[in-house]
Amino acid sequence: MRTSRLAAAALLVGGMLPAMAHHSFAIFDHTQTYTLKGTVRSFQWTNPHGYIDLDVASGLKGVDRYTVELTSINMLRRAGWKSSDVKAGDEVTAIVAPLLNGDEGGLLLELKMADGRTLVPPVPAANTFTRTP
Amino acid sequence: MRLQHRLSLAGVAAAFVMGFAAEAQTPDLTGSWERYRGPAGDAANPPPEAPPPLKASFRAEWEARSAARREADARGEPQASNVTHCIPDGVPSMMNGPFPFEIVQNATQINIAQEAYSQIRRIYLGKPQLTLDDIELGFYGRSVGEWRGDTLVVDTIGIKEYVRFRDVPHTPDMRITERFKLVRPDVLWDEITIDDPAVLERPWTVTFAYRRMPDYEIIEYVCEDNREYADEDGITRLRVGPAAEAP
């Protein structure tokens, strides 16, 4: 009993190992995604996170501006991203996990560019976000 | 004059050879490293992490805090913490990753530069440790080290109370002993033992493994635009809207 309790506790602590880069991703909805089409106003290459400020054309009724958060730019760099990958004026389709509190922002899971490129940020435990149409 | 020159050359050569001999026994840890998690059964995997052997009163408090944090996460209202405010991890949390770090080593000093938050810790070799009276508490404390055979043993004191590893409380008297050792030419272990008799039943040891990243150059990390903040209830929030004007 004692051993199994210890083992369970060890498992629990071990489960904390993939530490969050900056903040907890618990602020984002893991049960649905939005697919937003729009135009990039700016692509901000900063830490602790990169950001896309998006003019929304379709995908979310009543919302015309959306804050798209990316991972740390260090993680993006290691995944092959460059600050020049996305530019103001680019037409994009962004798949995001929205903020749970309803604010107009979300975590980028995938970015489709008009030229056919699909950019995927290295979100830790990305498979825990359920994609919805 | 000529003889003097020859003698000094011989001296330099002898010093070089002796230095080289001394260096040859010391593993070279210089380079970039990141957490290593080998396949099951890999002998380079360190033992599984054990929970902190907290004294009963501290354990109850720690478990309650951990449970509250898990519940807050499940509600989607994560509690704000140091990282919400871009406050760096400090020692020993910065050894946890997930970002890489770089070791630069010479005969008198070893620096460890953690990519996240551009944190640096300095380990002085061959110097005595000071007492708490002589140092101010901080994020990295004061570290001294020595090579014992192929193992670098590092002693650290002087960590601020709110700079916590796994959110485990500690007193200013906490002492951290680390043993760095190459378990394979390209796998390094840091066996971290935390001793704080006022809080822990016994010393607590956690071991991390790292793999060498031969061509990796550490990337700078500055919290240039931190849009996370803690609301009045201490919940992590994200500021949405356009970027703030650059200073």
Overview of the molecule:
The complex is a heterodimer of chains A (133) and B (247). Chain A is built from two helices and six strands; from the N terminus they run αβββαβββ. Chain A has 133 residues and is of the alpha+beta class. Chain A has a five-stranded mixed β-barrel with strand order 1-2-3-5-4. In chain A, strand 4 and strand 5 form a beta hairpin. The radius of gyration of chain A is 17 Å and the shape is globular. Chain B has a single domain, classed as Beta Barrel (Lipocalin). Chain B contains two helices and eleven strands; from the N terminus they run H-E-H-E-E-E-E-E-E-E-E-E-E. In chain B, strand 10 and strand 11 form a beta hairpin. Classes of the chains: A alpha+beta (133), B alpha+beta (247).
List keywords for this structure.
heterodimer; A: 133 residues; alpha+beta; OB fold (Dihydrolipoamide Acetyltransferase, E2P); five-stranded mixed beta barrel; 6 strands; 14% helix; 32% strand; globular; B: 247 residues; Lipocalin; nine-stranded mixed beta barrel; two-stranded antiparallel ribbon; 2 helices; 11 strands; 17% helix
Q: Structural class given helices, strands, pairing of chain A? A: alpha+beta
Structural class of chain B: alpha+beta
| CATH architecture type of chain A | Beta Barrel
CATH architecture classification of chain B: Beta Barrel
User: Assembly type of the shown chains?
Assistant: heterodimer
In round numbers, the mean pLDDT of chain A is 87
Please state the overall shape of chain B, judged from the principal axes of the Cα atoms.
Answer: globular
> What portion of the residues of chain A fall into strands of 2 or more residues?
25-35%
Could you give a short account of the major beta sheet of chain B?
Answer: 9 strands, mixed, barrel
CATH domain class of chain B: Mainly Beta
> How many strands in all of chain A?
6
Structure summary, number of beta strands of chain B: 11
Order of helices and strands of chain B: HEHEEEEEEEEEE
Estimate percent helicity of chain B: 10-25%
Please write the string of helix (H) and strand (E) elements of chain A.
Answer: HEEEHEEE
- Using only C-alpha atoms, the radius of gyration of chain A works out to 17 Å
Top CATH class of chain A: Mainly Beta
CATH topology-level fold name of chain B: Lipocalin
Count, helices of chain B: 2
The helix count of chain A comes to 2
